[in-house]
């Protein structure tokens, strides 16, 4: 099963830091993503673009995790040469993670 | 029980106007906020102002004001916006002139000033850049703008003085929406629980359509009805700071707990520590409850005392980016695009360029995955690099163009461009170093 089957996500950006929210469609799946989608695993999965650490925050009442990805935007929105300077499409690739 | 309604009229500088007009006409609003300043927009505006002292405000100000002024006169909705950008005074004058031409009288317009701290920053080059830790002096000569993210103060003052339209420069985005709550409900500036709640509501509204179904649709998993006719959101608030978020009946889009949760966490790091100039908002316990179709009730945001510094965005010239693109199709198109890219890279080696990168659109330009799909009919090569001058940056696109007669078989559809890079560095400035004041004009 892939993450997009049970959860949705949105990316935000500030400077060279990206954040990705991961939100389950059904609250009953929260414990599954809480267990399987760790900060380390996200760092591995998106390792090609995330040069710094990954931190995870938990919001169980919303069925949500928030990942903060440091040094993830090629130097930052205002100086990157990447085509998607904001890294807006990153959340779609997080959702490709098999669990 | 007193209730107020605040609408989100724009989520970025170039946002659509039609949904804002719909909100103004049918949303029964007391206030509408137009959030129009991205991180570096104000640096670009500052450059425009330098070339022409009558410019430097939002490009769509005239377009928006011409459409909304007649509605404001009828509905008495108050407008709060950072469309002033680098020149709130000129934005105020332009708005007054539009009202005069349209024969609209009796409106008071305010310009909130003081966020522009360029002079102070030029004398504070010892301050460390938050992103790199190095002192500001490392980018000293390149600095073109410095604006503090100020809070609600100037806007609340303007409201107390009866302003109908309030134009600001850099103001923390949620403050545009928090200010009218403080004014209407008489919240104290040290009631941090209320300020945290109001900041949360401002955060939900500040991206306009992004909370009402925009940037959400994903086929059947996340179906959004009539996305083409996306309606913008409004919040209906109680004095307690709790309330609901909804949109005008009959508009497209979607508001449910999922759209609200996506927007709540948008651009948030630690949800318990969202730093604004007004408070440290805490979203970590926020709850959403769908109480009707496209209507969600929110509760349990809170906050703590703000820090004693403002974040200042310092815009600086950071060279140029040159780019060229070319498409390849048919058999082995990925391999031919790669060969073309390697050729261009080699030809560019003679030049003093930085960060030369090669992407293949359709394969790896946004994807961090290392997979190689089979059976692609076409791909597009993109070569991009940084240079110190415009002339140097042009070489990148030119070397892509010359692939027509000097590269692999079958390349077509070349495009090339050069852009000046305006980057942003952040520093912290003591609040005592910033002097906020308000100017007024009447129509």
TrEMBL record, chain A:
<dbReference type="InterPro" id="IPR056362">
    <property type="entry name" value="AtuA-like_ferredoxin_dom"/>
</dbReference>
<protein>
    <recommendedName>
        <fullName>AtuA-like ferredoxin-fold domain-containing protein</fullName>
    </recommendedName>
</protein>
<feature type="domain" description="AtuA-like ferredoxin-fold">
    <location>
        <begin position="1"/>
        <end position="99"/>
    </location>
</feature>
<dbReference type="Pfam" id="PF23544">
    <property type="entry name" value="AtuA_ferredoxin"/>
</dbReference>
Automatic annotation (TrEMBL), chain B:
<dbReference type="InterPro" id="IPR010839">
    <property type="entry name" value="AtuA_N"/>
</dbReference>
<protein>
    <submittedName>
        <fullName>Uncharacterized protein DUF1446</fullName>
    </submittedName>
</protein>
<feature type="domain" description="Acyclic terpene utilisation N-terminal">
    <location>
        <begin position="4"/>
        <end position="439"/>
    </location>
</feature>
<dbReference type="Pfam" id="PF07287">
    <property type="entry name" value="AtuA"/>
</dbReference>
